[in-house]
Design goal:
By secondary structure, the protein is α/β, with parallel strands linked by helices. The chain folds into two domains: 47 residues, no CATH class; 252 residues, 3-Layer(aba) Sandwich (UDP-N-acetylmuramoyl-L-alanine:D-glutamate ligase), CATH 3.40.1190.20. 34% of the residues lie in helices and 22% in strands. The chain contains ten helices and 13 strands. The strands form four sheets. The chain has a six-stranded mixed beta sheet with strand order 5-4-3-6-7-8. Strands 9-10-11 form a three-stranded antiparallel beta sheet, sandwiched between helices. Strands 1-2 form a two-stranded antiparallel sheet. Helix 4 packs parallel to helix 5 and helix 7 crosses helix 8. It starts with 11 loop residues before the first strand and ends in a 10-residue tail after the last strand.
C-alpha cells in the first residue's frame, strides 16, 4: 500500500527508522517532513496515527541516479553503482552514457549511444522519481558532457557527486582536450563533491602530484575549479602501508586513513562515489558521507571475490551492506 503524500491532509509524519518505537508510541514526528514531506530527503516518511499499528510501506523510497558507463563484467560502472545503492537501502536509477564490452582482464569495445537517447533516459528518471543525489561516472566525449550538464541545469538535483573518469588503469588518457575543458567548465561548478584519483587530479590541474604536500595543495586548487567539496583519493600516492583520502570543503579538512590492502580491486572509484551519493540520500553531511563510504570500500574489498579468470578482485558489496 502506497500513500500519495501530496493528497494527505492533517497527517503526522514519522521516520521509518523509529518504526518499532513508533508502534509503542515512543517515536517523535519529523518537523521537516510535516512541513514539506516531498522535500525531506533525510527521512523516509510514513503518514500514520501513532496510536494504531501500521501495516503499510513507505510512500516513496529514497532514489539515487547514476549517469555513467555500463560494465558488462559487472565489477565497475553502473553495475557497481546500483549494487552500492542497494547495499545502502537506496533505490538505484541509471542513465547509460556508454556501453563497454569488458571483463576482469580489460575492455574490448566501447559504444557511446546518441546523446538524445541519454537525455531521454535522464528525463525519464526525473519525471517519475524523487532523486536525492546524482552520481556521474564515465562521460566519454564533450558532447556527452554538455548533454548531461544541460540536463542537470534543468533539474538541479540536491546533490551531485562527480567521479571524473579520465584515465584508464593502464594510464591511458580517456578524454580528449575538449571533453576535459567541458568537464572543467560545465560540470565542476555544479558539483557538490568531486572525487578524483591522483592521475585525474593531475589532468584537471595540469601538474604533477608526487607527495603529501602536493596532495594538500591540490585540494585547494581543485576547490578553486568550482566544486563544493573535494575528496582526493590517495591510492596512487606512495604513503607507505596506508592509503590517505583527503577531503576539503570551504571550511573543513579531513584525512581518511585506511590500511593499504595488497589486492587489485576493480570498481573502487565508481563504488566510492556511488556510496557517497547513497549516504547523502540518507541525510548524512558531506564529510560524514565520505567517511562512511571510505569504510564501505574497505569492507567491500576485504569481502571481494575473483569471479573472472584473472587476479582482479570484484567488490563484495552485500557483505559490506550498510543499514538504511
Amino acid at each position: 500500500m502506497f500513500f500519495n503524500v501530496q493528497n494527505i491532509s492533517k497527517a503526522v509524519f514519522y521516520c521509518d527508522k523509529g518504526l518499532d518505537a513508533t508502534r509503542t508510541g515512543a517515536s517523535s514526528p519529523c518537523p521537516a517532513a510535516a512541513a514539506r514531506p516531498r522535500d525531506c530527503m533525510r527521512h523516509r516518511m510514513l503518514p500514520m496515527n501513532p496510536s494504531t499499528t501500521l501495516h503499510a510501506t513507505m510512500t516513496r523510497p529514497l532514489c539515487a541516479l547514476t549517469i555513467a558507463g555500463s560494465d558488462s563484467g559487472g565489477g565497475a560502472g553502473i553495475q557497481a553503482d546500483l549494487k552500492a545503492f542497494a547495499a545502502h537501502g537506496v533505490h538505484g536509477l541509471s542513465a547509460i552514457a556508454a556501453l563497454t564490452a569488458q571483463h576482469t582482464r580489460g575492455v574490448t569495445a566501447v559504444h557511446v549511444p546518441p546523446v538524445e537517447f541519454l537525455r531521454a533516459q535522464i528525463d525519464a528518471c526525473f519525471d517519475d522519481f524523487d532523486i536525492g543525489a546524482v552520481k556521474l561516472g564515465m562521460l566519454a566525449s564533450a558532447a556527452v558532457i554538455h548533454a548531461v550538464a544541460d540536463a542537470l541545469d534543468a533539474y538541479r538535483p540536491p546533490q551531485l557527486v562527480v567521479d571524473p573518469v579520465m584515465v584508464a588503469t593502464s594510464g591511458a588518457r580517456l578524454l580528449e582536450e575538449d571533453a576535459l575543458d567541458a568537464m572543467r567548465t560545465r560540470l565542476l561548478p555544479q558539483a557538490s563533491l568531486l572525487t578524483p584519483n591522483i592521475p585525474e587530479a593531475e589532468l584537471l590541474l595540469g601538474r604533477r602530484i608526487t607527495d603529501a604536500a602536493g596532495a594538500e595543495a591540490a585540494l585547494d586548487a581543485l576547490l578553486a575549479l568550482g566544486a563544493g567539496a573535494v575528496l582526493l583519493k590517495g591510492g596512487h600516492l606512495d604513503e607507505g602501508d596506508q592509503v590517505i583520502d583527503r577531503y576539503a570543503d570551504a571550511s573543513t579538512r579531513h584525512a581518511f586513513r585506511s590500511p593499504r590492502l595488497q589486492v587489485d580491486g576493480h570498481g573502487t572509484g565508481c563504488t566510492l562515489a556511488s556510496a557517497i551519493a547513497a549516504n547523502l540520500c540518507l541525510g548524512r553531511a558531506m564529510p560524514d558521507a565520505c567517511a562512511a563510504a571510505v569504510d564501505y570500500i574497505r569492507d567491500a574489498l576485504r569481502a571481494g571475490t575473483r569471479p573472472g579468470r584473472s587476479e582482479v578482485l570484484v567488490l563484495g558489496h552485500f557483505a559490506a551492506r550498510r543499514p538504511a
